[in-house]
Please model this.
Amino acid sequence: MYTLAVDAMGGDFAPEITVKGCLEALRAFDDIRIRLFGREEEIRPHLSGEEYDAARLEILDARDVITNDEAPMLAVRHKTDSSLVRAAMDVRQGNADALISAGSTGAVLACGMLRIGRIAGVDRPALAAIVPTAAGVPAVIVDAGANVDCRPEYLLRFAQMGDIYARQVLGIQNPRVGLLNIGEEEEKGCQLTKATHELLKTAKLNFTGNVEARGVLNGGADVFVCDGYHGNLVIKASEGAIAALFTMLKRELTSTFVSKVGAALSKPAFRRVKRRMNVNEVGGGPMLGVRGAVVKAHGNSTSHAFFCCLRQARQMAAGQVVEIIEKLDEQIEGGNENV
Amino acid sequence: MYTLAVDAMGGDFAPEITVKGCLEALRAFDDIRIRLFGREEEIRPHLSGEEYDAARLEILDARDVITNDEAPMLAVRHKTDSSLVRAAMDVRQGNADALISAGSTGAVLACGMLRIGRIAGVDRPALAAIVPTAAGVPAVIVDAGANVDCRPEYLLRFAQMGDIYARQVLGIQNPRVGLLNIGEEEEKGCQLTKATHELLKTAKLNFTGNVEARGVLNGGADVFVCDGYHGNLVIKASEGAIAALFTMLKRELTSTFVSKVGAALSKPAFRRVKRRMNVNEVGGGPMLGVRGAVVKAHGNSTSHAFFCCLRQARQMAAGQVVEIIEKLDEQIEGGNENV
Model:
């Protein structure tokens, strides 16, 4: 049985979508329990009339809410009765295996650092992004924005944690770990990537060398290792390119009668592509390197997208992602010559 | 009359496509002269039977060729009879206004630096990228890969040169200059972007603040200022996302009979989108900050794509891009309080 601590109040459409996502998860999985933190009187209305296993859903009243406008560190320190901090403390105290929140990214990261706590040996926990690819299998980008101005040793750790996530959650046997870079040749890149390349070459990973950003959505690697600034640029550029293309396709497809007919007939195909490229289906951003499974859901998640994050958190718990990251240093001390 | 020095031998399909591109340009513009450098016996066959104004095309025999596999700096130093170096020297000696080459990016940049020479006050010439956007007007990304590990002052110069290019070549009246960043808030970013933000805020530019990579293909700014490493990541991520989307659309559109019919009817619309997103139509990458207009064409350019680069070089010469960049420091000394 896996216990998920859920921040009911985080996100643009909370608590409606968070509650509905929880109900979907309770129906889909009989091996989870949910501890739902938030204002009980706002949560209850969304439960009435719904069928679910009430024995596995506990509501824990938390009066405060952390908003997107607040300074994350301060909010996490002071708003001790917020739904987010209470859910995080629940993980820290061992009552829950995982924290799921659609709240502010900064606050979720701060909660991971301050309230749940770093795993020994992980200087910089990372926020990974899981992206769908044309190859069919999702890819892990780590770091996707938690850490800018990184040092090579951070990136080595990101690589190790991304590798564990790819194995344990995505079920990839021997993940291809690539170093995000502007060229494939070993000598290419900036100071950071050149130094990181040296570290990764001798690490106990299936390191496949430098990979260009072109490969991110095309299956160029299973794990893309990068500074959070670079990861964030690549993710947003990809999103922007897809949005631009859909804007232009829509404009052109509605510009003549024939193309309108064509568009109508192709609609199901377009819908399938949109669904496959939908980042929500692969879940949210897993925070790696803290002493609990943490999943940051998109702020504008639908209830199904939030459900996907709960499913992902359950997979992280089931796959013992945290426990395996905790053992990274033991493995290293036990004979890995790389660090 | 503008004189273009063309490297006939650079690129994957040279000299066929370079010669054909030149012929298209001679027919399109009667105010250009072309000085074509390369192996005369390889160039001549592509001219036979073609109609063009022979008085404006001069072939200058150059025996050597610089390949993609060579170390750019060494090649540019030693292969003095290569088509690329000869064409660059032609610009340096004042015989031509512009250099156009589809050869190795590194070699073209090295030629710009070593053979044509930097403009006084420009520490780091940049390679810009011109990208089509869903908004209809192309955008300038500068730097797009010539300089990794930049300092804030380099980025200020990139911004000024990108602004000049946008005005003089793209005809944008008051270009919106944005600092590529991972968030729009002023305090967001890495050390480099934070320091650059301060410089740009007080520069004599229409600085519109930080812009996210999402905005690149969607008209979020006219000029995106960034470190070459970041610019290159964003361009390649965008290309990759578009390629991934087309791969998936193709797969889905051919998966059922109905969608195949729909795809057939929508084909002209798709073609229009592909044409509009075609980077070749906007030309190649202009090198900014050297004492001549330099355009790097894609290595796999078609003859029409190469023609677009010649048109672009002509526009750079006509718009006096080089001369205006040369005067940047005068303006600054003459009362601009910003630097």
In short: The CA atoms of residues 53 and 215 of chain A lie 44 Å apart. The longest strand of chain A covers residues 32-38.
